[in-house]
């Protein structure tokens, strides 16, 4: 099984690589330190599975997961997170992840999660989350309401990380005028006045870290 691991902490990536490479049926074929790099490496190496940290610079793991699943539908995604809040679980599933592992449980759960997801099963690290997901999947609603589109979330994350409109346009391959339009829409949709309020919102939503 060919695996890509993406986490913005080199030590975490190193630990996961050691764990995975010890398995006779698994091999780490690529590593990435942020979401943009993860997407690029996935396109280049076409792994069977991506282990993605949810919170990374430039593009979150969930934003990258959405892009990877759109371009490589055969590639499975396993989300890795320090958050056990149900909102993060819903967001991961909506982005196309088939599993969700808490970082504090990596040593015990990562290999089982990789094997489960590669078989086509869902994997969550505790019974409560399984219950939440079962209820969500059997319900016609799609979990907690998200006011922003995936593209707006990508733009918001980069605004919060102090990227200029020009830098955002280059990172997301958009026209600068399109970025300006997204910025205005974000302020209007969220009822906010300036970048400072957008940054606070992005931190609360887990799109970036304080």
Automatic annotation (TrEMBL):
<dbReference type="Pfam" id="PF00196">
    <property type="entry name" value="GerE"/>
</dbReference>
<dbReference type="InterPro" id="IPR001789">
    <property type="entry name" value="Sig_transdc_resp-reg_receiver"/>
</dbReference>
<feature type="modified residue" description="4-aspartylphosphate">
    <location>
        <position position="53"/>
    </location>
</feature>
<keyword id="KW-0597">Phosphoprotein</keyword>
<feature type="domain" description="Response regulatory">
    <location>
        <begin position="2"/>
        <end position="118"/>
    </location>
</feature>
<dbReference type="InterPro" id="IPR011006">
    <property type="entry name" value="CheY-like_superfamily"/>
</dbReference>
<feature type="domain" description="HTH luxR-type">
    <location>
        <begin position="141"/>
        <end position="206"/>
    </location>
</feature>
<protein>
    <submittedName>
        <fullName>Response regulator transcription factor</fullName>
    </submittedName>
</protein>
<keyword id="KW-0805">Transcription regulation</keyword>
<dbReference type="Pfam" id="PF00072">
    <property type="entry name" value="Response_reg"/>
</dbReference>
<dbReference type="InterPro" id="IPR016032">
    <property type="entry name" value="Sig_transdc_resp-reg_C-effctor"/>
</dbReference>
<dbReference type="InterPro" id="IPR039420">
    <property type="entry name" value="WalR-like"/>
</dbReference>
<keyword id="KW-0238">DNA-binding</keyword>
<dbReference type="InterPro" id="IPR058245">
    <property type="entry name" value="NreC/VraR/RcsB-like_REC"/>
</dbReference>
<dbReference type="InterPro" id="IPR000792">
    <property type="entry name" value="Tscrpt_reg_LuxR_C"/>
</dbReference>
<keyword id="KW-0804">Transcription</keyword>
